[in-house]
Design a protein that fits this description.
single chain; Rossmann fold; 15 helices; eight-stranded mixed sheet
Length: 424
């Protein structure tokens, strides 16, 4: 049979018997939008404001979140542990990162008896290390904290977007940040649990006692730092253990590129792409041995030749960035969902306030629509039909968070700025 002659568009040529399709022109000026979720109001609130997403993620409001902790469904013990480190954690990921990671550790590591210790590479202000060191001690595990205590090394502009500069996150007033951390941990009842190493990650020599890891948190910001960290810890992560990578959805893009390059050759396990569990706002979790490929049990009636072949399907369609994402962790966090529900109610009430001019009402409505869209995404059944665009549905409602995070810290060549300074 002769091949059909391709048309200029790459499709088969039209049969001479085919009827011409009449296309009616549409007057786009007369098209009516019948659902406001299909269009964003053209005005926005000045950032940061008091509505979504800042009432969920803002450092100024996290004390109020913890004060409502039990109403949201957090246990008194967890609220106490979070308050213990609140002033030494960066927001985000605090508090939702700590809450979701802790839930995974308890349900999937402790209860499943996954072996290994805990670690953080890149301790920031120190609170997250203290939080998880205290959790490690509760279950007879050790904790390794690693940091240069001197700020970031020089970024590689062939791998990182312009954003960070050398020395970002250095200590204020040239204080001894390591000593500050050692002083901070003294009254936290973890001195017999926590080991501190001062070095850049590429130079890390992991102590022998940390032969296996069950939970590792990487807060490294740059491509080389994240890649070097993965090189150091991944082979020691036990099957069923996990690595959490902060700043994965950051404008600098170094962590995302490092994860992609590392697992492209390693696989999780070999030859299979990892499934990335999204944790608000910037982070992802990779579980050792849990790939994006869902294997189907072999059919007992299969022939010997077909039994050699694996069958199954991917967790969902691949996203445009080449990754496979899961939102199960965030959709399973009921306190987070309740907080977003409160945010929707707050923005809805504000949008109905009297005496708002048109610009104000549109700006508040935009925050309300974002909150509603995010809540709808969270409540979507996790076992329902998936799309490679699901990651965009997660990112879009958080537009104000992403835009304020970019700020003016773009580190562009020729643009001078002071380095970011933090204290412990």
């Amino acid at each position: 049979m002769a091949r059909p002659v391709p048309s200029s568009a790459g499709y088969g040529a039209k049969s001479s018997a085919a009827k011409e399709v009449q296309v009616r022109e549409v007057d786009v000026e007369r098209v009516e939008v019948i659902n406001e979720l299909y269009i964003q109001p053209p005005h926005r609130l000045s950032k940061p404001h008091q509505y979504f997403p800042f009432d969920i993620f803002s450092g100024r409001l996290h004390k109020q979140l913890l004060d409502r902790g039990e109403t949201l469904g957090l246990t008194p013990h967890l609220v106490e542990e979070l308050q213990y480190v609140r002033d030494h954690c960066m927001t985000p990921p605090f508090p939702w990162g700590q809450i979701i990671y802790r839930s995974f550790v308890l349900g999937n590591i402790i209860q499943q008896d996954i072996p290994g210790h805990f670690a953080e590479l890149g301790i920031g202000q120190g609170g997250t290390s203290i939080f998880f060191a205290r959790l490690a001690k509760m279950y007879g595990r050790k904790f390794l904290a690693v940091d240069s205590f001197e700020g970031l090394p020089e970024p590689d502009m062939t791998k990182d977007n312009h954003y960070f500069v050398q020395g970002d996150y250095r200590p204020k007033n040239e204080v001894d940040q390591l000593q500050c951390f050692m002083d901070y941990m003294k009254d936290k009842d973890i001195e017999d649990t926590l080991t501190v190493k001062k070095c850049f990650f590429k130079d890390l020599d992991i102590p022998d006692e940390f032969d296996k890891f069950a939970f590792v948190h990487l807060d490294s910001d740059l491509y080389d730092s994240v890649y070097d960290s993965l090189e150091k810890v991944w082979d020691r992560v036990a099957d069923g253990g996990c690595v959490a990578v902060d700043d994965f959805f950051h404008h600098a893009q170094g962590p995302a590129r490092a994860v992609a390059d590392f697992f492209r050759t390693r696989g999780n396990p070999n030859g299979e792409p990892p499934l990335l569990y999204v944790v608000p706002t910037y982070a992802i979790v990779i579980v050792k041995g849990r790939s994006a490929f869902i294997e189907r049990p072999p059919n007992g009636s299969s022939s010997s030749s077909s039994a050699q072949r694996r069958s199954g399907s991917m967790h969902g369609p691949r996203a445009l960035d080449g990754n496979y994402y899961s939102f199960k962790m965030v959709r399973s966090c009921q306190p987070f969902i309740r907080a977003v529900e409160e945010s929707v109610r707050s923005a809805t009430a504000a949008s109905q306030a009297p005496n708002l001019d048109e610009v104000q009402q549109q700006a508040i409505n935009r925050a309300r629509i974002n909150a509603e869209a995010f809540l709808s995404f969270l409540k979507y059944p996790d076992n329902a039909a998936r799309s490679g665009s699901d990651i965009l549905r997660y990112l879009w409602p958080l537009e104000d968070q992403w835009d304020i995070s970019q700020g003016t810290l773009n580190g562009m060549a020729g643009v001078a700025r002071n380095t970011i300074e933090i204290g412990i």
